[in-house]
């Protein structure tokens, strides 16, 4: 059971910036803001049940984005450019191709996740020409497809059916980024969202779009930024642990790229390797976020996020006062202190 002072706040009314800083952020506790983003344009325009994916397909143009695809998910580890595990496939897509794939998988649940595309191959007479068009369409490696020839013979194929077994697609794309403006591919979507009122005084580091087409789970990790996660469509379950629970979660080695991630499989922990993990759930809290809700996750708080089928979210990251106040010339000093621990 979490300490009372660390309990997640549940707020029906949105605080003003001053109240947020004094009552929530300064106490370093998570908070749920019910219905916080229901007034966004995105709340209705991006809704998959009312043509939201088609709307996004029209808006994004030919932007190139990164996504992870997995055949053995649902757990994904880390940033899509950094420390994914070997069962996650990291690809760079054109946005129209990726959203077409999301739409296709979303309409093929009854087929066990098999995605079927029909491509017009009129005038193509060789297998290499057909493969080239297929790979150009989805921009994925050759060995990820099952190519099925028509019964009427290869030379006279007019349409080729491609079946792809894709269990999960996870998309993380910057809408705004101060630290790396070159990575911003979906800035056009910013007019569909609004900065939550309680963040009006914050200097944001980045805004990101998150989307998955099937149930997915993040690894247990913490972020080096203050974070507000806003669910636009679908539902997310977030399990939270305070920084004080770190010894029970066994963070990855300091020298690796995933040092902010837990090394423990919390569903089936190996207690011979991680004996303290048995107590980890005693420090955890669980919250459910529905469409329109937002969650403040303070930096340093471990969290594991489960997303249901086809969930769309936006998050806002900014640096805490502590991190903002650390001068770069003191990095070596702080590193020396850390290495002594």
UniProtKB/TrEMBL annotation:
Source organism lineage? Answer: Eukaryota, Viridiplantae, Streptophyta, Embryophyta, Tracheophyta
Query: PANTHER family recorded for this chain?
Result: HYPOXIA-INDUCIBLE FACTOR 1 ALPHA INHIBITOR-RELATED, LYSINE-SPECIFIC DEMETHYLASE JMJ31
**In its UniProt entry, what is this protein called?**
JmjC domain-containing protein
Which Pfam families would you find in this protein's record?
Cupin_8 (PF13621)
> Which residue ranges does the record assign to the JmjC domain?
173-333
Q: Which PROSITE patterns match?
A: JMJC
Task: Quote the SMART domains the UniProt record gives.
Answer: JmjC (SM00558)
Family listed: Belongs to the JARID1 histone demethylase family.
The record, for SUPFAM superfamilies, names: Clavaminate synthase-like (SSF51197)
